[in-house]
């Protein structure tokens, strides 16, 4: 049996699940409610726009590997505080933060090493974070109200 495994890293974009951070934060901001904000805002995640993930999936489907595992991400990290700042800018609203201690067991930094996916799939994410946030908030403003 031929198997290709794909590991996604913090996927976001229009129609994102409402329980995930970007959608949840946008909803709370639009309602004027506080955002639960764990730690000092220095934790970093590899936010990957959904179109870039889809391009990686399609590239993997075109290949015929015996067995491979690929990371699909942006391979750049964004601090939590920068995420909130980008949402504020894109939504035109100030976030109200409910400061909380760091969550036990939460990783300070997660990111994808996409070198194998670049080499073997031609995977190359194209959507800069700020642009992806704008795409998300444009969708959110038109659909979440």
What's the short story on this structure?
Helices cover 39% and strands 21% of the residues. By secondary structure, the protein is α/β, with parallel strands linked by helices.
Report on this model:
This protein has helices spanning 21-30, 50-61, 80-91, 115-121, 129-143, and strands at residues 3-8, 11-12, 34-38, 44-45, 48-49, 67-72, 78-79, 96-100. The protein has 145 residues and is an alpha/beta fold. The chain has a single domain (3-143), classed as 3-Layer(aba) Sandwich (Rossmann fold). Strands 1-6 form a two-stranded parallel sheet. Helix 1 (21-30) packs across helix 5 and helix 3 (80-91) crosses helix 5. The N and C termini lie far apart (46 Å).
What is the end-to-end distance? 46 Å
Number of helices: 5
Quaternary form: single chain
The proportion of residues forming helix, as a percent range, comes to: 25-40%
List the main descriptive attributes of the protein structure presented here.
two-stranded parallel sheet, 8 strands, alpha/beta, 5 helices, single chain, 39% helix, 145 residues, Rossmann fold
How does the SSE layout of this entry go?
Layout: E1 3-8, E2 11-12, H1 21-30, E3 34-38, E4 44-45, E5 48-49, H2 50-61, E6 67-72, E7 78-79, H3 80-91, E8 96-100, H4 115-121, H5 129-143
Parallel strand pairs: 1-6, 2-5, 3-8
Antiparallel strand pairs: 4-7
Helix pairs in contact: 1-3, 1-5, 3-5
